[in-house]
Design goal:
6-stranded mixed β-sheet, globular, 29 strands, about 30% strand, single chain, alpha/beta
Length: about 375
């Protein structure tokens, strides 16, 4: 059987406003994950293992925060003469110019280039999630069920009103889609992975634009149109999936990785590739005490670290305590500082003694060392044991 020619489009241009100060200086796909990776690494590694080598990354918000890390696609074997990685930025001077106003509008502005690519299938991904998926399995579902659109779905323990809620029949056909409903009818949601037949996508983009005048988010216009007019099926994702779109989910995903019930990032058969700089191994010195934690390269620990992620090049001084925290790169925690349930942004220096954080809230500390936000625990997410 001929393998369908597939183009992957990663949407990496959103502002990620629900993450507050974490995305004021970087786009969400550039966020550190597990101390060693960037969030974009997950999507690109899944594509690499699925042998999909035509990959476009559509950028808009703070692209410089991502471009240096991408390294022309080299870590994912995408620096090639035919196909490979292409960065798609807003432009002036032709059809599709200007800034997009949502993800379906983003696709609409790229429709001429999608048509020129002359592919069979278009795989549209968000770069905001932690998961493992062999996209060849999704392609098999799409082809075997003669689908025009295949939506990858998963169940969630969170409030489903954050997502697109999907209804399916007993044969896996999608019968309904509600985008971020106030009262969700079930816990089956879109994993933000959509595999379109290219002709269906292009025709639907034009039809929706003609109907609405302009496109916004595909959960509001494009996907409902395709479901109403074409054959749409689900591909159920097995295993872990987390939307990293809030401070609660970002923090909880790291706690779950530590506890062994989260994303699997060290599978030798499905490694996560990245373009991280090479540094010395982490150094645990003096009277340091480290328990159930991830300590990244270039870090030095003199104090106490419990159930936490310590980012690259960070320093925990003697007399400092870090518990249930996620420290990004280059953080320095001074003597006498006690951190509990905190996310600390890149480069922050905390040098004033006292307690930072809270037992019943997640505290975000900005790069200036000041508290930028505090949010209550989302009880739908797993908390540290």
């Amino acid at each position: 059987m001929r393998i369908p020619k597939t183009l992957a489009i990663i949407l990496a241009g959103g502002k990620g406003t629900r993450l507050g100060a974490l995305t004021q200086r970087r786009v969400k796909p550039a966020l550190p994950v597990a101390g060693t990776y960037r969030l974009i690494d997950v999507s690109l590694s899944n594509l690499a293992h699925s042998h999909i080598s035509d990959v476009w990354i559509v950028e808009q918000y703070l692209p410089h925060s991502l471009n240096q890390h991408l390294a022309q696609g080299r870590p994912w074997d995408l620096d090639r003469n035919h196909g490979g990685l292409r960065l798609i930025a807003p432009f002036e001077g032709g059809p599709g110019e200007g800034f997009a106003h949502g993800n379906s509008d983003t696709l609409y502005r790229q429709r001429a280039r999608i048509a020129e690519a002359d592919v069979d299938l278009v795989l549209v991904l968000s770069a905001d999630h932690l998961y493992t998926c062999n996209f060849l399995d999704v392609i098999d579902t799409h082809v075997n069920k003669n689908a025009d659109l295949t939506i990858v779905t998963t169940t969630t323990d969170e409030n489903a009103s954050r997502f697109g809620v999907v209804d399916v029949d007993d044969r896996g056909a999608v019968t309904g889609f509600a985008y971020k409903p106030d009262e969700p009818d079930g816990d089956l949601v879109s994993a933000e992975i959509f595999l379109y037949s290219a002709r269906t996508l292009l025709e639907s983009l034009d039809a929706v634009a003609e109907e609405f005048g302009e496109l916004t988010d595909y959960g509001k216009d494009l996907v409902p149109h395709v479901i109403a007019q074409h054959r749409v099926v689900e591909h159920r994702l097995a295993g872990y999936w987390m939307d990293m779109g809030t401070l609660q989910s970002y923090w909880a995903a790291h706690m779950q990785i530590i506890d062994g019930n989260g994303a699997v990032l060290d599978d030798p058969d499905w490694p996560i590739y990245s373009a991280q700089p090479q540094q010395l191994p982490a150094c645990i010195e003096g009277s340091a005490a480290v328990h159930r934690s991830l300590i990244s390269s270039g870090s030095r620990v003199h104090g106490t670290v419990e159930h936490s992620v310590v980012g690259t090049g960070s320093v925990i001084e003697d007399g400092a305590s870090v518990t249930n925290c996620v420290l990004l790169d280059g953080v320095r925690v001074g003597a006498g500082v006690e951190l509990t349930n905190c996310i600390v942004d890149e480069g922050a220096h905390l040098d004033r003694a006292g307690v930072r954080g809270s037992d019943d809230r997640i505290t975000l500390i900005g790069p200036d060392g000041l508290i930028a936000d505090r949010v209550p625990f989302d009880r739908g997410l797993a908390l540290p044991g």
